[in-house]
Design the sequence.
C-alpha cells in the first residue's frame, strides 16, 4: 500500500510539471492546427475510419492496404458462412420441435436429436459472434495502425542511431551495460 501511494504521488507530481509548460490555445484553433499539419495523425485516423485502408495509403504505406482488405474480407467471408450455417441449424431445430409433423429437418440435420440440433445451433452462433468480434478487431487495428504510423511519419531512422550492449561482470553483480548513441 505504501508503494502504491508513493507511485500515485509521483504520477501526480509528474502530471503537474507537464501541465505547467502547456500553452493556452482556444479549442477551435487547436483543431485547426492539428488538421493542417504537414502530415496529420488526425487526418490519417479519420481517413482510416471512413474508408478502411485509406489511412495507410495517406501514410504512404501502400503495402499495408491489401493486408487490411484481406483481413476485413476474410472476416466478412466467415460472417457470411457462419450466418448461413447458424440459420440452417436454427431452422432445423425449429422444424424438429414444432407441432407440425410435415416439417422435418433435412440434409445434415436429418436423424439428429433435439439436443444435437441445439448444440450445433449454439456452436455456429458462437462462431458468428467471434467472426463479428474479429471484424471489429481488424477494423479498430487498422485505425490504430494508421494513427501510430502518422505519428511516426517523420521519425528519424538514420544509421547514426545505435544501441550497443556489453556484458558486465563485477564482484557485486553480473548483467548487461546498454549504451545509446545518438548523433
Sequence:
Amino acid at each position: 500500500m505504501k508503494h502504491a501511494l508513493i507511485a500515485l504521488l509521483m504520477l501526480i507530481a509528474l502530471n503537474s510539471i507537464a501541465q505547467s509548460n502547456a500553452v493556452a490555445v482556444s479549442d477551435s484553433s487547436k483543431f485547426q492546427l492539428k488538421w493542417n499539419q504537414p502530415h496529420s495523425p488526425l487526418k490519417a485516423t479519420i481517413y482510416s475510419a471512413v474508408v478502411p485502408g485509406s489511412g495507410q495509403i495517406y501514410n504512404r504505406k501502400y503495402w499495408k492496404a491489401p493486408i487490411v482488405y484481406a483481413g476485413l474480407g476474410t472476416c466478412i467471408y466467415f460472417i457470411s458462412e457462419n450466418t448461413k450455417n447458424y440459420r440452417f441449424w436454427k431452422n432445423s431445430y425449429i422444424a424438429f420441435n414444432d407441432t407440425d409433423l410435415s416439417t422435418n429437418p433435412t440434409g445434415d440435420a436429418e436423424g439428429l436429436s433435439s439436443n444435437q440440433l441445439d448444440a450445433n445451433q449454439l456452436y455456429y452462433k458462437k462462431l458468428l459472434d467471434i467472426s463479428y468480434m474479429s471484424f471489429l478487431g481488424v477494423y479498430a487495428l487498422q485505425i490504430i495502425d494508421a494513427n501510430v504510423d502518422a505519428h511516426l511519419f517523420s521519425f528519424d531512422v538514420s544509421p547514426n542511431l545505435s544501441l550497443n550492449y556489453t556484458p558486465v561482470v563485477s564482484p557485486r553483480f553480473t548483467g548487461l551495460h546498454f549504451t545509446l548513441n545518438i548523433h
About this structure: Residues 36-155 form one domain. The radius of gyration is 28 Å. The longest helix spans residues 114-151.
